[in-house]
Design a protein that fits this description.
It is a single chain. The protein is mainly alpha-helical. It is 75% helix and 0% strand. The chain contains five helices and no strands. Helix 2 packs across helix 4. The two termini are 33 Å apart.
Length: 127
């Protein structure tokens, strides 16, 4: 995620330098990327605002009343996060291979889902 964020910043810097000479489609993609970043930032601010309102001010380490990042809150921005990570990792490479980045992200998400299932969910609720 950090590499993708740094690459998206690099993408913005290079796009902003030559913004006047860009075709209309690339300008539209630039504006859509900005919109998706605002969606993700709004999601993060919403989660942290609710957590700060519900936390015990005398014991900040007690997170028993915080909503954390549950699936129902993460789902609306899942596509935006995937696009930003995909864009960042593709732009990080000197010659972007969109297919290689897509397969890497798919494989990584599959491994994370399987690890979450077999390491956390099944042992906690079924054993």
């Amino acid at each position: 995620m950090g590499l993708a964020f740094a690459s998206v910043l690099k993408y913005f810097w290079q796009t902003a330098k030559s913004f006047g000479a860009l075709p209309k489609q690339e300008k539209t993609a630039f504006y859509q990327t900005i919109f998706l970043i605002f969606c993700v930032l709004g999601f993060f601010l919403m989660i942290h605002t609710v957590n700060f309102q519900q936390v015990n001010p005398r014991n900040v380490a007690d997170e028993s009343h915080s909503i954390a990042i549950q699936g129902r809150y993460f789902f609306p921005v899942m596509a935006a996060k995937f696009y930003l990570i995909f864009l960042g990792l593709s732009f990080l490479l000197s010659r972007p291979s969109w297919r290689a980045v897509a397969w890497f992200l798919f494989s990584f998400m599959l491994v994370l889902n399987l690890a979450g299932l077999f390491v956390y969910v099944i042992p906690r609720y079924y054993f």
